[in-house]
Design a protein that fits this description.
Blueprint: H1 6-14, E1 19-23, H2 27-35, E2 40-43, H3 47-50, H4 62-75, E3 80-84, H5 93-105, E4 110-114, H6 118-129, E5 134-139, H7 145-148, H8 158-174, E6 178-182, H9 186-195, E7 200-203, E8 211-214, H10 216-219, H11 241-253
Parallel strand pairs: 1-2, 1-8, 2-3, 3-4, 4-5, 5-6, 6-7, 7-8
Helix pairs in contact: 2-4, 6-8, 8-9
The chain binds 3-methyl-2-oxobutanoic acid.
């Protein structure tokens, strides 16, 4: 079993080889995803909605994240495993270090944190200096939903798009090794993907990014009326969950997904 590392993602970016990632929250799905060709899994704080039934990610605790990260790791020992630091779990240095260490100790390879303001950039620097690998998350950052006033496309005007691009460059300089870019236009995603040397994983950012990620319930078409327009139900054309995941992986690797229907321009 070959273990996927951040160096593999780096090589894939250089070779322009697209890759598919997905969220998972338990061992059974994590194993199935790995067996169907997924090498990068995120234990997202989206579990607040998908598993716990809340209407945002804000109620998720570090204890929840530790529990689900340990479950996923047992199901998929070879995947590159990212785990979210949930809302307000990285507000101070001490909390950030303890909470990140706890996620790494149950099997995360990298922690993900949202935002690109100066204090987040400094946090990234401090974490990477302490051997905690960081995936950053820019664009629509769901922990800031009450600041944004809804789940909206980000970077629509020149000032905000430049801010996202500059944050991405600063996060890379601070030591982030991966970036999740959510709900931005194709053009902004293209500028950021080309400007960075680290891999960029898009969600609602068009097929120009190095990789794609979707929430597993969206891939399986079981989210219901809140399914975002950038997502696609891959279960509708297959016989079973395994087919749906293979279809998702193949469509990402061949740049068929996301199509123009699932892209913001
Ligand atoms: O929490 C999550 O699932 C995420 C993805 C939407 C990227 O952050």
């Amino acid at each position: 079993m070959k273990i996927t590392t951040i160096s593999d993602l780096q090589k894939w970016k250089q070779k322009k080889q697209k890759f598919a990632a997905i969220t998972a929250y338990d061992a059974t799905f994590a194993k199935l995803f790995y067996e169907q060709g997924i090498h990068v899994i995120l234990v997202g704080d989206s579990l607040g909605m998908t598993i716990q039934g809340h209407n945002s990610t804000l109620p998720v605790t570090i204890k929840d994240m530790i529990y689900h990260t340990s479950c996923v790791r047992r199901g998929a020992p070879s995947c590159l495993l990212l785990a979210d630091l949930p809302f307000m779990s990285y507000a101070t240095d001490a909390e950030t270090f303890n909470n990140s260490a706890a996620l790494m100790q149950v099997g995360a390879n990298m922690i993900k944190l949202e935002g690109g303001d100066l204090w987040v950039i400094n946090t990234v620097k401090k974490l990477t200096q302490r051997s905690i690998p960081v995936c950053s998350h820019l664009g629509l950052t769901p922990q800031s939903i009450n600041i944004f006033g809804g789940y909206k496309i980000q970077g629509r005007d020149t000032i905000s798009s430049e801010k996202i691009l500059n944050s991405a460059l600063s996060l890379e300089s601070a030591g982030s090794q991966l970036l999740v870019l959510e709900c931005v236009s194709f053009d902004l995603a293209k500028r950021i993907t080309n400007a960075l040397t680290i891999p960029v994983i898009g969600i609602g950012a068009g097929n120009i990014t190095d990789g794609q990620i979707l929430v597993m319930q969206d891939v399986l078409g079981i989210t219901g009326e809140n399914t975002p327009s950038f997502a696609k139900n891959f279960f509708s054309t297959g016989e079973n969950i395994q087919d749906a995941i293979r279809h998702y992986v193949n469509d990402v690797e061949s740049s068929v997904f996301p199509s123009s229907e699932n892209t913001f321009y």
